Amino acid sequence: MLPRVAAAAAALCCLSAATSRSLGEEVVMRDGRVLTGKLGIVTGLADLPKAADPEGGGPIPLIVFVDDELRRTFVPKRLIREIRPGSGVEVLERYHIPQRVATAGMTVSSMGFPLRVTPFDEFGRRIFTLATASGRVDVIQGITELTPRWVRVQGITHVWDMRMATTSLPRDVLERLLLGRTDQADVEARKKAARFYIQMERYEDALGQLQAILEDPAVSAEAKADLQSSFQVLKQLSARRILEELKFRRAAGQHRTVLTLLQKFPTDGVAGDILQEVREILEEYQKQGEQAEGLVARLRELVRQIDETALRKEAGEAVEEIAARLSPDTLPRLAAFSQFAEDATVPAEERVALAITGWYLGADRAARRSKMACPGAPRVIRMDRGCSIRPARMRRACRLERTSMIHYSCDLCKRPLDPRNDLRYTVKIEVYAAFDPLELDDAEVDRDHLEELHEILERMDDATDEQLGDEVFQQLRYDLCPECRQKFLKNPLGKKASEQLDFSKN
């Protein structure tokens, strides 16, 4: 991240960006987070920031807010480790858009459920329809200030001032607003638009602006030469950003999209280290693809070697599902099968069983002779009359295998319970604190509870999570045999001492 920021700063310098700095303050939280912006203190979230009383009167402000011009983040003082002067914040490019803003009249003080929000037009206006107590209200809004981080939107028919992230504007709307306020004959104005996109980290759009300047015959050769270095830096930034986006999509499992875009990755003027990373990812995908094709081909060959027709058919269906859903994310499920795929000493049926059980249960639970269904069946994937290894039944069989490994006993009489043959009942008990509505008088409503909350939070810091949780909520679970179930239902609260349940810790 730091090299990219440095490169962006270099590009801005080449474009004659403003070098002045506006100092902010940094709030370092106890958990390590750092908030940057202008600071203020309040006594409550509904209070307006105001200067402290010189005589020291009034409630003690225990909340600090950090204003970064887009949002205000409120944090309690006790969670702040230190407040230090900011290292300097870059001055953002700004565009002022003239609108007939309402300064008096009806005011939007709180927003209800929005019924309709139209897109911004070429003049930066939209209609925001609200549902109010008096019915439907249409509020016309207009963008009055545009920066790379935030957009100021003010009411035209109503008094309303709000901020929204610039990235939430559609690309075409943002382009129309910028181009409408950029004199195409003024090179400095076009460079300002490029700087705007760089500060937004939309390097492809900044490249488009610079490319248009470099191709404009009206621009002097000297001016174009000054822009060449910025153009090359932005090319690297754009390529690096695309690569990072592809890595993010790859981690999210969008492998087909990533592979398609990697094959179309731009190479003209891109640094060698970036292209090397692209080649390495492509080679890894190629190796995984070849491995997957080889394993599927080997599986199909082994299925054909199974003698019994019915079993061969069922195994073939499972293998075809594996082939259809095999991807770089699911390929590790066949790790156990890949170790024995070419081992002729292992029967074909057992190798197929390794693949199928590994696919449904995971490679660490793959088995040559699965016990997932009916005991005593002669085959590797044990089946009896009516059993199948179709996907749905295979998953159900896997659940049966996991269940058979758990040992149950009645928590009352201690008798062992076989999950396959014995009927077992589960008792779940939830004990939680009741919260009843309180009747508050006017004095209680007007009282400031902030300090009380502060004391409660401090006490919570001293208590363990287990103590806090047990005081509010507990959940208990017991297993009973049919006979003990009847006893429990007759006396669930244990009122008769002779029949109290003596539950063991299972």
For the biggest sheet, the summary is:
6 strands, antiparallel
Q: Which class of secondary structure composition applies to the elements?
A: alpha+beta
Report the total helices: 15
Query: Given the C-alpha coordinates, what overall shape results?
Result: flat
Give the proportion of residues in helices.
40-55%
Strand content: 15-25%
How far is the first residue's CA from the last residue's CA? 51 Å
Mean pLDDT: 77
Backbone CA Rg: 34 Å
The poorly predicted ranges are 18-22, 370-393, 395-405, 435-440
The counted number of beta strands is 17
Entry keywords:
single chain, about 20% strand, alpha+beta, flat, five-stranded antiparallel sheet, six-stranded antiparallel sheet, about 500 residues, 15 helices
Offer a concise description of the structure.
This protein has 506 residues and is α+β, with helices and mostly antiparallel strands.
Walk me through what this model shows:
It is a single chain. By secondary structure, the protein is α+β, with helices and mostly antiparallel strands. Helices cover 41% and strands 18% of the residues. Strands 8, 9, 10, 11, 12 and 13 form a six-stranded antiparallel β-sheet that branches. Strands 5-4-3-2-6 form a five-stranded antiparallel β-sheet, with no helix packed on it. The radius of gyration is 34 Å and the shape is flat.
How is this fold's topology laid out?
Blueprint: H1 2-14, E1 21-22, E2 25-29, E3 34-42, E4 63-67, E5 72-76, E6 80-85, E7 89-90, E8 95-96, E9 114-117, E10 125-132, E11 135-146, E12 150-155, E13 161-165, H2 171-179, H3 187-199, H4 203-214, H5 221-251, H6 255-263, H7 272-304, H8 309-325, H9 335-340, H10 348-361, H11 391-404, E14 408-409, E15 416-417, E16 425-432, H12 442-446, H13 450-462, H14 465-472, E17 473-480, H15 482-490
Antiparallel strand pairs: 1-7, 2-3, 2-6, 3-4, 4-5, 8-11, 9-10, 10-11, 11-12, 12-13, 14-15, 16-17
